[in-house]
Amino acid sequence: MIQKTLALLMTGSLALNGQNTIGSIDRIDPAFNQWVMENTVIEVLASGFRWSEGAVWVPRFNGILFSDEPNNIVYKWTEKEGLSEFLNPSGMTGHAPHSSNSGGNGLRIDAEGNLILCQHGDRRIAKLKSWEFNTPEYETLVDHYDGKWLNSPNDLVLSKNGDVFFTDPPYGLAQQDNDPLKEIPFSGIYRWNPEEGIQLLSKSMTRPNGIALSLDEKTVYVGNSDPKNSVIIAYDLVDGKLINERVFFDANTLTKKGPGLFDGLKVHSSGTIFSTGPGGVLVIDPQGKHLGTIRPGKPTANCAFDADETYLYLTSNDILARIKIK
Asked: 87 lies in which domain range?
């Protein structure tokens, strides 16, 4: 495992800022106080990234992994060791025809403890072959649909039986919808497993991005990162198919917005949804009621809880941050 401390840390161009704080908290509904105590601050842990993404908690080293997607790197941060480079390259290795150097994006840990990655440049869902390496090696899980290269898998969630649900907008292609390498004419939501292969679940969303499952796995939530239709969509999951598409939350209902679009989202063990979106991280109850917003003051791409849900980690533009929650 790569454990070297980055030279950038020594030069000061990438700084550990454990004592720095940022942003503000909007308390919209009294129920929000059960999540964030008064005077709680957003703590900056590291900065200097081009676009931080894909945060996931990793129990094996009690720390967080997250992507710096444009730089094709995945970083590791732990309380004990701080920041280190973990995967380089993280998602553009030359596996597929590509038009950018985009690396890893969404990250998840499967039931066996494997790291599963959405790889923009390689246009695939892949598994890290080993946690001990000098140069990372990846196993392709899926990279084609209907004989065509995927656009650029963006985010994923794993069901209890191991199914991989993922979104496939064109963000990893330099010209996105107009890129000459784009083979699939829509941005799909897919399900994949090794027995059945890949199945298209929906192609109705313009920019499906973050994806999550409800605790009972009967509902799939997908953030649409389209400024013309800034919504979170919910679907019923029935026999492996998505039905009853509906708007779960609409950004037009926000009286106060801010930088960012709906992107990554995670479901807390209570069923409450923590979704990055306009202004930061929106806390939304299972009925779709907006309780409050955690505002780092920067566009926020993704978020993740630690093992006991003591902290929520934020990947916000050029920083990694966290906030303590109840």
From this structure: 7-324
Cis peptide bond prior to 89, omega within 30° of 0: yes
* Residue 29, both tokens: 């509904």
End-to-end Cα spacing for the chain: 33
47-to-77, 235, 293, 320 alpha-carbon distances in Å: 12, 36, 22, 6
Give mean pLDDT in consecutive 10-residue pieces for the chain, a chain of 326 residues.
36 46 96 93 97 97 97 97 96 95 96 97 97 89 98 98 97 96 98 97 98 98 97 97 98 93 97 98 98 97 97 98 95
Is there a contact between 31 and 291 (Cβ–Cβ < 8 Å)?
yes
Query: Residue 27 domain-assigned?
Result: yes
Residue 19: the pLDDT is 61
Count of domains forming the chain? 1
Helix %, strand %, coil % for the chain, to 5?
A: 5, 45, 45
Strands in 219-224's sheet, in edge-to-edge order, are 208-213, 219-224, 231-238, 241-250
Instruction: Determine contact, residues 118/106, Cβ cutoff 8 Å.
Output: yes
How far is residue 80's CA from residue 321's CA, in Å, rounded to a whole number? 16
Residue type, 6: L
Residue 307 is predicted with a pLDDT of: 96
The first and second tokens of residue 263, run together, are 């992107």
Q: Could you tell me if 233 and 220 are in contact, meaning their C-beta atoms sit under 8 angstroms apart?
A: no
CA distance 246 to 228: 17
DSSP at 5: P
What is the Cα gyration radius of the chain? Answer: 18
What is the CATH number for 147?
2.120.10.30
pLDDT at position 154 is 98
pLDDT of residue 135: 85
Residue type present at position 166: F
Structure tokens that stand for 258 in this block: 């801010």
